[in-house]
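Quick one: sequence plus zinc ion SMILES, need structure tokens.
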Amino acid sequence: MFPNKKNTNTMHKNLLIIGLSITLTSCASRPTTAVNTKKSTLLVTQTKKITPKKENNLIKIDNIDFYQVNIADLSKNNNTISYGSIVSANPQGYSISKEHFPSVGQNFRERFIIIHYTALDYEKSIKVLTQKNVSAHYLVNDRPDKEIYQLVDENKRSYHAGVSHWRNFDNLNDNSIGIEIVNSGFVLNSSGQRQFFPYPDYQFRKVAALIKDLATRYMIPPTNILGHSDIAPTRKQDPGPMFPWKKLYDDYGLGMWYDTSSVQNYITISNDDIVHQYNSPAFIAKVQKKLKDFGYAINITSTWDKDTKKVIQSFQYHFHPSKTDGVLDAETWAILQSLYDKYK
Ligand SMILES: [Zn+2]
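Reply:
Sure thing.
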């Protein structure tokens, strides 16, 4: 029903078949009729002289060096051309040259991986994400099979992030890959607190494998593997505190996590801050600034306002899942400072 991994595999195979062939023969065989007129003399002088220059993988055309590269080499960020891009370009009356000169001046648009839960069951997740004006690149179901669904081409925008911010970036739909996970989200208990649903291990392993693949192919740094709640902390809670970010870091080397030794170094002074300065405007501003510098969208108001509480809660959902009330305690404060030191 929707494109799956097979399509990606086919594309990669085609990429392997397509290889670049910029050769002396192919370019020199261009017709350059030598008629004895001034115009044709000009034509002759403009004929490209191509000299293979094997060292450094360069060829020389009209005395200019071009890189001769293999477009199948997806590990190179700076000189690949997508197979889809080549075959779909179709200017009327013209053709896209089969001789490609991939520029080194390029990079991937994909800079972030954003994790979500759907807060819907399997069927409704598929229905909403494929038939409404909300989407994600990938949907990870809640079944112990080997399938991951691709709903949107990786090179296109999907509508998953909404109004969002992280560090110097806004509107992360423009430059992120969105992964939706089938998970019911949370219910409110009798005291009005959110009770989140866990992620089965088989489902988490699928998500982790997908993140690993994407992070490798697009060279996405740990600081840019985030939850929806990190980039929209006043609006969103997903993927929630049950998403095992620590396991993702420990078992797969993906995303951010703090070093325990660093937190221990901070904990005494952090405790002192909480005991003696908790309501000091200067201290509150310091905490807000640290959250902002780490990446969150937050205003420096010097008060424990509603939005600040939501940002702290989002931080706790990700990095301190055993305490998620949105109130800064010594441990949350120590973790924030440790993470900032490690990933600033
Ligand atoms: Zn979301």
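The first helix runs from residue 5 to 18. The first strand starts at residue 50 and ends at 53.
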